[in-house]
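Justification of computing resources. Each target in the renewal requires a structure prediction run like the one illustrated here; the chain below, 254 residues long, is used simply to show the kind of job we budget for.
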Amino acid sequence: MGKTHIVLPDPHSCPEWNQERFKWFGKLVADVKPDTVVCIGDWGDLGSLCTYDKGTRGYEGRRYKKDLEAIHEAQDLFFAPIKAAKKKQPRYIMLEGNHEHRIERAISQDAAQLEGIISLDDLGYEDYGWEFIKYDGSTPGVIEVDGISYAHYHTSGVMNRAISGTYPAAALINKQYKSCTMGHSHVFDHTIRTDATGKHIHGLVCGVGTDQEMGYAGAANKLWWRGVVIKHDVEDGHYDIETVTLKRLKEIYG
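Resulting structure tokens:
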């Protein structure tokens, strides 16, 4: 038998949003008892460090301290039902997303003011038991688990841009030549190819882990898939996929 992975797509913990979904995620983990839990990145939204809308009306009231409180609260909610179940703990992997990377960018842009004052350690991921896979230079770090390469987003070309397109899962396979999973775009797409030896190769873009609409995205919010992915019988990059929408999670655990 292969392994079981649960993939949590971009959860975007934010002080202004309801965080009950993190409790649902934890209850799902307690019930499924996976071997590995992968958060694909952007566990924290960190709106206080966003540079795109700085100075606008919507930016008013954001605070780094509030962002951190929400991130820690989300982890408390997530781990509480898992600890209560008193089962064997899975492997927890947290990928640094572009929203977490806002901390490093802020320090880089204003080192005199921020170096030594804020850091990725503020997120507390490793304290909670996550293996924290940080950026490699200017692009997300990659980790391979049971033949699947996980990253917040995979890149292609000399400009290191995120793989995307009309069929992003197929593009993942075409560019990386192996089973890969990524988040970042908030859409869902899954493609399977078979090589000449009969090996199955999966490309997966796994959606988003919040039902909150994001103002910057406008009509694109309607394109996003919101839920969690369970990979059953994972072995050498192949798996059986199960999707669980946030709506269904709420019906089960809410």
